[in-house]
Every structure is written in structure tokens, then in C-alpha cells.
Design brief:
The protein is mainly alpha-helical. The chain has helices at 3-25, 30-61, 72-92, 94-108, 114-135.
Length: 145
């Protein structure tokens, strides 16, 4: 399946997902609906941006060879890591498991250096704590820790 078609399908699915959740959030009280609606608009804008970037890249790469094949082994291993995170979050708790998950994901995907991965994993966890627990008073899974 061509690169542009994959991104087109992903964009359409994300836009449908965002639309359904946005319509669903209309039934919430105004103050409770604002944050999810902002996030959904942001996700939709990023999906459109992803598709636009894919079109531009396709136009740029038309003269180059076919794109590299997907490393199925890496996809399966990363999927297992995500499944483990979802299963263990109630047991170990959000604040214990999330920084480990983010750090391991960034290192496994070779997205950044170790020091940057450590900073991002801890920083994101602190940001989520400040936003959800301290500011919005939304409970997160505590787990055994």
C-alpha cells in the first residue's frame, strides 16, 4: 500500500475518532467539556498536518527508490510493551510506571539520547501530575506505590 494512502487512511480514522468524541463531549457540562474538546481539535489538526507532510514527502521522494519495509519484529515488541503498560498501570500505578514506559519507549525506538529520554520521561510525568492531580483534581491510578 502506498505511503500516501496509509497516511490518508490514518488521517480519516483520526478525524472520525475526533469527531465522534467531540460530539459526545457536547453532553458534558461546559467547563468539563472544554479540555477534551481542545485536545480533540489539536489531535485533528495534527492529523491533517501529518497528511500534509506525507503529501509533501511523497512529492519530494517520487524520484527516489521505494520506502524501506517496516520492521515487523520491532512493531510486535513495541506493541507488547504498550500492552504491558496498559495491563500493569493499575497494579504499579501511573506515577511509577509511566516514566519507565516513556524512557524505555524512547530508547527502544531510538528517538533520542539517554539523557534526553530521562529528562522527558520525568518531566512529562511531573507535568501530568501537576495538570491532572494538582490542578484538575482528577485521580490517576495509584497502584501499590
Amino acid at each position: 500500500m502506498p505511503y500516501i494512502i496509509k497516511h490518508g487512511i490514518a488521517t480519516v480514522l483520526l478525524l472520525i475518532f475526533c469527531s465522534v468524541l467531540f460530539i459526545e463531549s457536547q453532553g458534558y457540562p461546559h467547563s468539563a467539556a472544554r479540555f477534551p474538546q481542545i485536545l480533540l481539535v489539536l489531535i485533528a489538526a495534527l492529523a491533517i498536518g501529518m497528511f500534509t507532510e506525507a503529501i509533501l514527502k511523497q512529492m519530494k521522494d517520487e524520484t527516489k527508490d521505494k520506502l524501506k519495509k517496516i520492521n515487523k519484529r520491532r512493531v510486535i515488541i513495541f506493541s507488547i510493551i504498550i500492552i504491558l503498560y496498559v495491563v500493569l498501570i493499575d497494579v504499579l500505578g501511573y506515577f511509577a510506571l509511566t516514566p519507565i514506559f516513556i524512557f524505555c519507549s524512547l530508547i527502544y525506538l531510538k528517538a533520542t539520547r539517554i539523557s534526553s529520554a530521562l529528562f522527558m520521561s520525568i518531566g512529562f510525568t511531573i507535568f501530568v501530575y501537576a495538570l491532572f492531580s494538582a490542578f484538575l483534581n482528577i485521580p490517576l491510578p495509584k497502584g501499590m506505590f
